[in-house]
Design a protein that fits this description.
This protein is mainly β and about 300 residues long. About 10% of the residues lie in helices and about 35% in strands. The protein has 1 helix and 20 strands. A hairpin with a 4-residue loop joins strand 8 and strand 9. About 0% of the residues have low confidence.
């Protein structure tokens, strides 16, 4: 900005020593000096409210460099860091407040459900990373309905419940981005291979349980009749099912969106040791692409 302070409107040679000086000259100088002081105060206050500072000014309690979404451009950035927010809540409903920081961490003591607040206005790109410490493989992370993009490639995601399951404990990092405020949020798993076909993981399937969508293989041993459920997967996902031991009863797995049925569910029955099949989820249906002794109905 151009300053209004004018040092040239003050007569530095007035008054003249050794002669009678007109009092109007004194008044003109004092008036101009006062006016310049007023300009200086106004301009300093304006700068104080608008400029970026490295430290609080004298008399300020704290530093406030809020840019109010103003554009900074043609800048070279070095040694940049982002604020980390350690969320104290460890289970239940947890709100991710975008305004508090771009990297937020959660240590779980139970399953959690995420929500988001204070995204920038629609039309501005925003992102936040959430590091989640899954301390028990039974814990899930449920996403809000606004997270509607990227979910087809999200490992362990159940579209019916919007919950993510994890094959093992550990730290997982999810990145959430949007340019539409809270309208349509994209999620990306930064810590796991997004292609489940090559996951070197398996589960021991329990009676009455849902088949894990976060592992490649599920096996089971029965000493009495057992049942389980295979829910909707995501396109391209491969899942193998195998009878490790069958001694006292069959395992019957009910399959959602069965590709061998015109619509609805179907069943797969395993009645002998070594019976197994390989399933692939294609066009929102489970199809058998390999079978060894399992019966389909």
């Amino acid at each position: 900005m151009a300053s209004n302070i004018n040092p040239n409107n003050i007569d530095g040679a007035y008054p003249v020593a050794g002669q009678d000086n007109n009092s109007q000259g004194f008044r003109d100088n004092f008036t101009n000096i006062k006016l310049n002081f007023q300009y200086a105060e106004d301009e300093i206050n304006d700068l104080d409210s608008k400029v970026l500072l490295k430290a609080p000014l004298e008399g300020q309690a704290s530093l406030n460099n809020n840019m109010n979404e103003q554009v900074i451009y043609n800048a070279q950035i070095r040694d940049f860091s982002a604020t980390r927010v350690a969320i104290s809540q460890t289970s239940g409903s947890i709100a991710i407040d975008y305004a508090t920081g771009h990297y937020q961490t959660i240590n779980t003591t139970g399953s959690i459900s995420l929500s988001f607040t204070n995204w920038p206005t629609s039309g501005l790109y925003a992102w936040v990373r959430v590091q989640i410490n899954i301390t028990n493989a039974a814990y899930t992370v449920t996403l809000p309905s606004a997270v509607s993009r990227g979910i087809n490639n999200l490992q362990g995601y159940d579209s019916a419940t919007r919950a993510i399951t994890f094959a093992q404990t550990g730290y997982y990092v999810l990145e959430f981005t949007t340019s539409t405020g809270n309208g349509a949020i994209t999620v990306e798993d930064l810590s796991r291979n997004v292609d489940p076909i090559f996951l070197p993981s398996s589960e021991d399937l329990a009676d009455g349980a849902d088949v894990s969508l976060a592992t490649t293989a599920s096996y089971f041993s029965t000493s009495a009749a057992e049942t389980a459920q295979l829910n909707a997967g995501y396109n391209g996902q491969i899942k193998t099912l195998m009878a490790y031991s069958v001694t006292g009863g069959n395992m019957v797995i009910t399959v959602a969106n069965a590709g061998w049925k015109s619509s609805g569910t179907g069943t797969i029955t395993f009645s002998s040791r070594g019976a197994a099949c390989t399933m692939q989820y294609i066009n929102s249906k489970w199809f058998c692409i390999g079978n060894n002794g399992a019966a389909f109905a």
